[in-house]
Amino acid sequence: MRSSSHSTTLLLPGQLRLILAIALVHVVVWFSYYSQLPAGQYPDEAARETLQAAQNLAIGLPTQTSGNTLYTYTLSILARFFESSESLVIAARTLNALALILSTGYCASAAGRYWRRNRTVWIAGLLVGLNPVLVFWAGQISPSLLATACMSVALWRMLRWLRRPKARDSVGVSIYLTLAAAFETCLLPLPLVWPLLAFLYPHRKRVMHGILALAPPILLLGFVLVSSLQLQSPLLWNFDQIGTGIYKALGNLEGYDGRSFALYRELHLILLFNPIHWGLLLILAGLGMYARLKDGHRGDNILLAVSILALFALSSALNEGGSQARATLIPLLSLFAAGISLLPKIWRRASQRTRRKIQVGTILLALFAYAGHFTEDQSQTWERDYIYLAEANIQLGNNDRASTWAEKALEINPNNTEMQEVIVMAQFNDWAMGTRQRSLPIEDIKAYQETSQPNTASATTQAIYAIYKYKLRELEAAQAIWKLQRDASALALLCLYWTGQIAEITPGEAKAYEGQPYYELLRDAIKVNRNALEYGNTEKLLDNILAFAY
């Protein structure tokens, strides 16, 4: 009777609602903060391609590639209601937030059912809902949160199935594992191996369980073969460093996956002050598994969890998975980490020998988790993040910050021509494109000109170099460069037009440069009536850009 009463009060709706509310506040605070940052306002190239493909699918236009992922199709549904890229980004983040809340709820519920203690509900729920890695990726155009939600539901149903195998759970677990694999390729071994377990574990109707569990992954692979559906990332078979790859999948170091989470953790205090991380979860999960065994239970669930981790580590090593892929297993670790609530009782009753075992095991697990920090510099991938942050800031008009990030990238790789060009554009924007344009003395122009030497520069930076030549009265040399770059640079075409080398530019001709730097300035310039009495802002700006030096 006591046990029945305890189980009925174990998962109080109010308790779960409070945990979900805490997780919701966490993600809303992060979104509010992140949306004010250049990284949150300017999606990277891969994200922009995904958004564009989703928008094209929504209106029936062909995409640049022959196939699309399940995540792209998911975003295309949202794109039917959110037409602009900005609103679609907000919708995608909202979907990620809902997936995080769902993951939190199912993980907390699974921990309550598994451990039969209220504390475990709180521990598991908050380890997921307040996890900085999950909330960081929730702010990206990324399928990792949807894959995490599918994994959480699969784990919740899997625990119920292990207690009493039912046909609906055999197929249910398989469906969610398959969806998780469709969103994150590194999880593909899980739905492929699940039918084997569904066949071997039950005592009755094994064939039925196996067939039901096999159907969803077969359907997914069939769709991939005969339709335009693609996996989130192509299957790679990288056997060169498989041992290192397996350790990277299980050790604390975050693998690079479009973003270096370690860098953003250092940049933003809201992430830095959050102590939850993979190494901590791994240690807590190990202690929770030990507590489960000491509590007198069989090790079936633990064996299954270790098998999932091993399969994922192997797949991640072969397919070069990163931080996003590994984030999908955070609910699994959190579920077993909740078992640390049993350790105080075990510790009090333990002998000195048992206590020593716990201490040694914890130290060994910690050494395994954190050993990578002593052998590998995690900042080696930061150059790509510096490049992205420089590009984001230059696009948003933050010239000083763009130069700062570009200089950091050049410290790592002095031959990075893209960052040299960012510095050139930042210098140009600073004096030419701000709210208060500045006229330049000859000394400054010569210094800027030296920085913007063409070499392997882009058409835009060559156009800027020619502007400096023009301001130094080297008119023919400047015009020659503009004419050479006019087809590839909106700024070069604009300079030819404003200096009278081209009599007219139609709106249709200008639209061909859409998406290039300074396209908006070109578009505004062709609307200016230079014979009108009014001297507008665009006219003032262009006259200052092409004014001779003093």
From TrEMBL:
TPR repeats: 383-416
Keyword Transmembrane helix tagged: yes
InterPro entries: TPR-like_helical_dom_sf, TPR_rpt
UniProt keyword annotations, A-Z: Membrane, TPR repeat, Transmembrane, Transmembrane helix
PROSITE patterns listed in its UniProt record: TPR
Keyword Zinc-finger assigned: no
Transmembrane feature ranges: 12-33, 88-109, 121-154, 174-199, 211-231, 267-290, 302-319, 325-346
Residues making up the signal peptide according to the UniProt record: none
Protein name as it appears in the record: Glycosyltransferase RgtA/B/C/D-like domain-containing protein
